[in-house]
Amino acid sequence: MIAQIFGLLGSLGVFLYGMRVMSDGIQKVAGSKMQSILNYMTKNRFVAVLTGFVITALVQSSSATTVMVVSFVNASLLSLTQSIGVIMGANIGTTVTTWIVSFFGFKFKIAAIALPIIGIGFPFVLSKSNKKRDFGEILVGFGLLFLGLSLLKDAVPYINPDSEVLASLQNYTDLGFISFLIFVFVGTILTIIVQSSSAAMAITVTMAYKGWIDFPTAAAIVLGENIGTTITAFLASIGTTVNARRAARAHLLFNIFGVIWIAIIFKYFTSFILSIAPWNSSLQENLPLNLSLFHTIFNILNTVVFIAFIPQLSLLVKKMIKPKERDLATHYKLQYISTGLQETPQMNLIKANNEISEMANIIDKMFNSFLNLFNNPEKKMGNQVEELIEMEDLTDQMQRELTRFLVECSQENLDEKNVRNVNAMMRIVNELEHIGDSCLKLTYLLQRRYDKKLKLHPKAFEEINVFSELIQQFIDLYKDTINEHMEKRILELAFKLESKINQSRDQLKKATRKRLQSGSDVNSELLYMDLLKHFEHIGDNSLNISQALRNIY
Question: Which domains occur in the chain, in start order?
């Protein structure tokens, strides 16, 4: 008995490890594609559903997708309404894994092909080429997953129809609606324990295939697994913003509501599934395919039913989850994404990319706020200065959190390319923070000009605005390519801009010295030179960002 239990645990361990290795490989190969897909999230609810489906199908983990969604909502990169659509799509996407397991795992002698697949993939894992190594991980993970499934099939003994075990299970299958609730609960607990709906599904399909449970019982367990898979996102939302907690709660409610309405027609729905199956649904060997069809049709119908009610679901969770005192605070906190058994290194880098883009937007806003203050010297500066101080404080917090976050990313199982990317990203974050400092120092200079009623020379506004156009071009240049590989011709343009900035600085400083020699106001001219100095610093930092972007691939 003890040997059988450890055999089951070991089989499940091989299955889960294979899924993790395969998922990591897929994420590395599809990382850039996932970034492109995420850019479409904000279109509409239908595109959001499609996004959730595609990403989950790519990374083979609905938990990874939903945890990523919660973290994006936490970073204000997704709205609550958009996140609900993506979560709905993730529920459909996770059925892809179920079909792979049911079709390949139970229709073929997978033990005969699992080891050859691992044998083909292993030499690629040893390759120096990143692409070949990632491809090798996918093959090895795929082989281990099905090897684990094969071992799981062997570890679960076949039950004779007259056995005592089956008789004891039958005691719980003849209780009507109570039986349904019992097995939904079993599915929920099973998924929470193994922390993977795909692994829980594999166990359920195996038990059904071996005759332990019939189709209606297995279908009820599958419904429970849909609820159990929400626990990962729920745990990831602890300590996050109010909207992130609401997104996790929306995931739970969506799956619970789905189970509720299907419970009303469960008997008829299972009969309907068996009637539309394009194979002989009465055969025991086709039971895994019956369950896959049930799982898919249920999740598609559940999404169709609730997609029109996304705004209402959003309002419901807003009423359920009220903002706490910490949600009103301005402290910036970047939560590291972790899904337990299913690691998400590529998604962490995507999240860091989005955060860096947001930081670049804040810097751009700070520079434009400074220009607005500079061109309105008579306007009171109180509120705008406070806003700039808050933005600069935010960039300081972002620098600390992003650096910590990227250090954690560097400790993951990253390939050589992504290790270089992480190093470049840390440099970019540091340079952006320096630009934020310069923008605040420029604002303090304007505050001094206002307080001391200093008057700059007549051409100062024209000169600074011409100079600022060069700076703005530099900011736009790196903003347009942030987190992307900067082409050589763009980097050459960056060097030309930096050269123009230096030339303008030298010319304007020379003009300042002449004005001082002619008796111009010393305090005004010194303030003007300080403005030029910080402009030059922004140009230097922008060039450093461009050089770092050249090293991102």
Answer: 2-327 (no CATH), 345-550 (1.20.58.220)
Chain-centroid distance of CA 335 in Å reads 11
Alpha-carbon distance of 113 to 159, in angstroms, equals: 27
Task: Give the global pTM.
Answer: 0.58
65-77 pLDDT tens trace: 776 677 667 656 6
- Assign 3-class secondary structure to 398-462: HHHHHHHHHHHHHCCCCCHHHHHHHHHHHHHHHHHHHHHHHHHHHHHHHHHHHHCCCCCCCCHHH
CB 474 within 8 A of CB 542: yes
Average pLDDT over the chain, rounded to whole?
A: 78
Hey, how many other C-beta atoms are within 10 angstroms of the C-beta on 183? 24
DSSP string, 238-251: TTS-HHHHHHHHHH
| Both tokens assigned to 379 | 């306007």
Alpha helices in 156-265 (DSSP H): 164-173, 177-194, 197-209, 215-228, 230-236, 242-264
d(CA 21, CA 62): 16
CA 105, 111, 117, 118 torsion-angle sign? positive
CA dist list (Å): 42 to 38, 46, 209, 242, 405 = 8, 10, 42, 20, 25
Q: What is the three-state SS of 344-408?
A: CHHHHHHHHHHHHHHHHHHHHHHHHHHHHHHCCCCCCCHHHHHHHHHHHHHHHHHHHHHHHHHHH
Report the largest interatomic distance among the alpha carbons of the chain, rounded to a whole angstrom: 110
Tokens of 421: 């990317």
The pLDDT value given to residue 433 = 93
- Are 417 and 553 in contact, with CB atoms under 8 Å apart? yes
Interval 212-265: pLDDT, tens = 778 888 889 889 888 887 876 776 676 666 777 888 888 888 889 988 999 898
Rounded distance between C-alpha atoms, residue 70 and residue 231, angstroms: 12
Return the structure tokens found at 93.
Answer: 């996407």
If one counts every other C-beta atom within 10 angstroms of the C-beta of residue 160, the result is 10
